[in-house]
Design brief:
Blueprint: E1 2-12, E2 20-25, E3 35-36, E4 39-41, H1 48-60, E5 62-79, E6 84-100, E7 110-116, H2 118-121, H3 128-133, H4 151-154, E8 161-172, E9 178-183, E10 193-194, E11 197-199, H5 206-218, E12 223-239, E13 245-258, E14 275-281, H6 283-286, H7 293-299
Parallel strand pairs: 1-6, 8-13
Antiparallel strand pairs: 1-4, 2-3, 2-7, 5-6, 8-9, 8-11, 9-10, 9-14, 12-13
């Protein structure tokens, strides 16, 4: 089976009675007749929060504002006829309506929509990630359900254009120290201190991928406390180990992570060569470091 990756962004919109807005997949989508939160795949270089606004307008006719990030989850679907397994990283935001007229998108991905209290939503055929986000029992989709792979997911991405999903952590210990890793030579940002973390593997949940990276890059066992932010970076001419400019779009989730029993930070061979060093820093030392933009924002410093 060929492996494909995609990133989607979705929104939880509730009305004054606490009902959530759901949309039903049309015959043109991979899961016809199945209900889910409004949303869909990111375009190249698109910030996930902007994707939610676009998808809501297209699927529901509503204009919404993003008020916060709720969750980052992943799932894998197998399309046997196409010989492809698709890993989807799904970013879920809380949104509020600010205008528009509610209507479905029959010519697109949704042919019906409606407001549902959780008890009624539980009786619908739901995408597993939607059931999980609503706190409902997660059940597999029927095996006989038609699954037409969208044409955009059938072919691999262009050789010089990539979309990457990664998970990083603002990692601290009981003494208040912050763990940072230095980017190795030959990678974008070489020599700068960065948040621990990296790209997730096919089939891997974002939080699990971060904890794996924490062991590989620094030899630390951590626990995820909460999800802090979603970050998007588009570098149309990144120079890295590929040896040629690459059009990279990186989507990064940032978690707060606690290491309860810290040890000396040591980079292991499993880090893959992108991490040169790892170290713990007292809070008063962090501000003077040469850091990546995302590390500087996460730690509340400008870096240099």
């Amino acid at each position: 089976m060929a492996e494909r990756r995609r990133i989607g962004a979705y929104g939880v919109l509730r009305d004054a009675d606490g009902r959530v807005l759901l949309v039903r997949g049309s015959a043109a989508c991979p899961y016809p007749g199945v209900w889910q939160l409004p949303g869909g795949g990111l375009e190249h270089a698109e910030h996930p929060a902007d994707a939610v606004l676009r998808e809501f307008a297209e699927e529901t006719g509503l204009a919404v504002d993003v008020t916060g990030v709720r969750a980052a989850v992943a799932d894998v679907a197998t399309f046997r006829d196409a010989g492809v397994t698709v890993h989807t990283d799904r970013l879920v935001f809380d949104v509020e309506a600010r205008g528009g007229t509610l209507r479905p998108e029959p010519s697109g991905g949704s042919d019906e929509l409606g407001w549902y209290p959780p008890a009624e939503a539980a009786a619908l055929p739901l995408m597993p990630f939607t059931a999980e986000l609503l706190g409902l029992p997660v059940t597999p989709l029927p095996s006989e359900l038609p699954r037409a792979l969208p044409l955009g997911q059938a072919a691999p991405a262009p050789a010089d254009r990539r979309q990457r999903f990664a998970a990083y952590g603002l990692v601290s210990d009981p003494a208040g120290r912050v763990l940072l890793t230095m980017i190795a030579d030959g990678y974008p940002g070489a020599g700068k201190w960065h948040l621990p973390g990296g790209g997730t593997d096919h089939g891997e949940q974002p939080a699990a991928g971060l904890l794996r990276e924490l062991v590989e890059e620094a030899g630390q066992l951590g626990r995820v406390v909460d999800l802090l932010a979603v970050d998007s970076l588009h570098n149309p001419a990144a120079l890295g180990p590929e040896g040629r400019p690459m059009d990279w779009h990186s989507v990064r989730v940032i978690y707060r992570v606690r290491v309860d029993a810290p040890t000396e930070a040591v980079v292991t061979e499993l880090a893959g060569g992108s991490t040169a060093r790892a170290a713990w820093f007292a809070p008063d030392r962090v501000g003077g470091l040469r850091m990546t933009d995302v590390a500087a924002r996460a730690t509340g410093h400008r870096g240099r």
